[in-house]
Structures are given as structure tokens and as C-alpha cells.
Design brief:
Helix content: 40-55%
Mean pLDDT: 80
Strand content: 5-15%
Number of helices: 12
Radius of gyration: 32 Å
Number of strands: 5
CATH topology of the largest domain: Hypothetical protein af1432
CATH architecture of the largest domain: Orthogonal Bundle
Structural class: alpha+beta
Distance between the termini: 82 Å
CATH class of the largest domain: Mainly Alpha
Largest sheet: 5 strands, antiparallel
Low-confidence stretches: 171-181, 297-306
Number of domains: 2
């Protein structure tokens, strides 16, 4: 192949790469060692409104949001020290109209030039913020309802004592036709019995306790008892207590088994996400439980049902 043919082919490759460069949806840029733009594709104007000639020769940092300057400089310094390695980071970047959009960057440098690809992620960041807001509000609601439920503990203990007394009287009942023990069926009536003991009270605390007694054995997929409620049909206080009641049962000793380890209990509960437990509430519980450096101290009990 002659030198002329090689030159023609090299020029064709360059034209092809330049065409691909301009077609790219992402923002592509090359800058000098000081971070001043030397080459940009058309995506900058499509995404941020800047014309190419307005950015050439201007420092990359000129458009970074002031609150993101320090973190961005730290990333650039780390990248320069590491050599030709890729570095991922995000920051807010100024548009031509003065607004800011979130960009997700991947950059590297060979010491003489910076090479960067950026993609707008403003909508994803907004979704993340909304999700954090929802989780924050849910945490607040859980804290409020938990505080109310703690106030109801005395009333619940009275109801529990009465339920245990009645169940102990019925422990030897047998089905008239099969002659089999019916302890489990009787045990499951405690949700209704507790509700009947506590309902129709003028006390908001006892009304809350009645709701908890009636609904804390319902399951998110509708397979629980006594009414087979599902999803948001189950009051949030019942969904909360369903989680803490099972956690308490799993991490407590029973006459038929020792307590499960803290981490094992959490794993077992995670497996029931969306079936037994409200997935949103369970995520909050597991998040809080996972942040605990020391599991709660347990005391032995063997008279609780699950």
C-alpha cells in the first residue's frame, strides 16, 4: 500500500471518528493540562445551551457549581496523581441560561490533556431526592406511631394476660369429629379477642391498642389472619408491629428452640419482604437495624406467640 493510500485511509478514519464524536448523545470533551477546553462535541449545546466557541479556551471549573468546587478539584487532583486511570464523579454544571444541571462524569488524563465524557442525570438526582423525602416522611410517621404504641404497652399487656388465661383454659379442646387438638386455631383467635377487649374505648391509646391487636398478624400478601387483609388495607400500626413482633419472636428463646442470631433473624425477615411484611416499612427497619453497632440486649421469654 502506497503512502498516499495510507494517508487517504487515515483521513477517512479520522472523518469517521469525528462523525461519531458529533453523533454522540453524551457530552464529550478534551481539555489541556490546566483544564481549558480544546475540543467539544455538539451535545454541549443540545444539553446545556453553550455553543462550542463559547467554551473553547475556558476552564472546566468555570462552570461548576460553587458548592461542588472543592469536591471536583479533589477528584481532578486524585486523577492527575493516578495517571491514565478513569475517575467517576458528579457535579452541578451551569447552563447558558444560568440554571444548573447535574452531570455524571468519567474523566482521565495523560498529563498533557484531559479526556472527559459527561451525561445529564438531573432527573435521576431529582428522583433520588424525592425518594429520600418519602423515606424521611415514612421514618417520621413510624417514629410518631411507635411513640403512641409504646404508650399503649400497658393496655396491651393487660389484653395479653387475658388472652393467655383464656387460651390456657382451652388448651385441651379437641375437634368433635377428628378428635385432634385445635390449639393453633384457638391461638389465632387471640387477635380478635384482644380487639374485642380493647375496642370501643374513649381512650385513643386503647383504640390504637385494639387496632394493633386486630391487625398485627395480617400479612402484606393477604395470607395472614384473622381477616386476610392485604397491602395498605392493613393499618400502618399493624404493619409496623408485624415487623417488630416477628423480630422479637425470632431473637427470643422459646421452649422448642433457642433464639436466632441477630443477623440470621434479619436475613429471615428480609426473605419475607413483600409477602409477610410491607416492603417499604421493612426496608426502613432493616436500614435502622443494619446501622446498629450492637444488637439490642435480649432477655429470655418462652410464652410469646409468633
Amino acid at each position: 500500500m502506497s503512502g498516499v493510500e495510507q494517508g487517504v485511509r487515515a483521513h477517512a478514519r479520522e472523518r469517521a471518528f469525528a462523525h461519531l464524536f458529533e453523533m454522540a448523545i453524551d457530552l464529550l470533551a478534551i481539555a489541556d493540562a490546566d483544564g481549558r477546553y480544546t475540543f467539544l462535541n455538539d451535545a454541549w449545546e443540545r444539553t446545556l445551551g453553550w455553543r462550542r466557541e463559547e467554551l473553547i479556551g475556558v476552564s472546566f471549573l468555570e462552570f461548576v457549581h460553587p458548592h461542588d468546587h472543592e469536591a471536583t478539584r479533589a477528584v481532578m487532583a486524585r486523577t492527575a496523581d493516578a495517571g491514565f486511570e478513569l475517575e467517576d464523579f458528579e457535579n452541578r454544571y451551569r447552563c447558558r441560561d444560568g440554571s444548573y444541571r447535574w452531570l455524571s462524569w468519567r474523566a482521565s488524563t495523560d498529563g498533557d490533556r484531559w479526556y472527559a465524557i459527561a451525561r445529564e442525570v438531573s432527573e435521576r438526582k431529582a428522583q433520588d431526592a424525592r425518594q429520600l423525602g418519602v423515606m424521611s416522611r415514612m421514618r417520621g410517621m413510624i417514629v410518631d406511631r411507635t411513640r403512641e404504641m409504646r404508650s399503649a404497652a400497658g393496655a396491651l399487656e393487660i389484653a395479653e394476660t387475658e388472652i393467655v388465661r383464656r387460651l390456657s383454659m382451652a388448651v385441651e379442646w379437641r375437634d368433635d369429629e377428628t378428635g385432634l387438638h385445635v390449639e393453633r386455631a384457638i391461638m389465632q383467635t387471640h387477635a380478635v379477642r384482644g380487639y374485642e377487649l380493647l375496642r370501643a374505648s374513649a381512650s385513643p391509646i386503647l383504640e390504637l391498642a385494639a387496632t394493633i391487636a386486630w391487625t398485627h398478624h395480617e400479612k402484606f400478601d393477604g395470607s395472614g389472619y384473622p381477616r386476610g387483609l392485604a397491602g395498605d388495607e392493613i393499618p400502618i400500626e399493624g404493619r409496623i408491629v408485624a415487623i417488630v413482633d416477628v423480630f422479637d419472636a425470632l431473637t427470643s428463646d422459646r421452649v422448642y428452640r433457642p433464639a436466632f442470631a441477630y443477623e440470621e433473624a434479619l436475613a429471615m425477615m428480609a426473605a419475607d419482604r413483600g409477602t409477610h411484611f410491607d416492603p417499604r416499612l421493612l426496608d426502613v427497619f432493616l436500614d435502622v437495624a443494619g446501622d446498629m453497632t450492637h444488637p439490642p440486649r435480649r432477655h429470655l421469654r418462652n410464652d410469646r406467640d409468633t
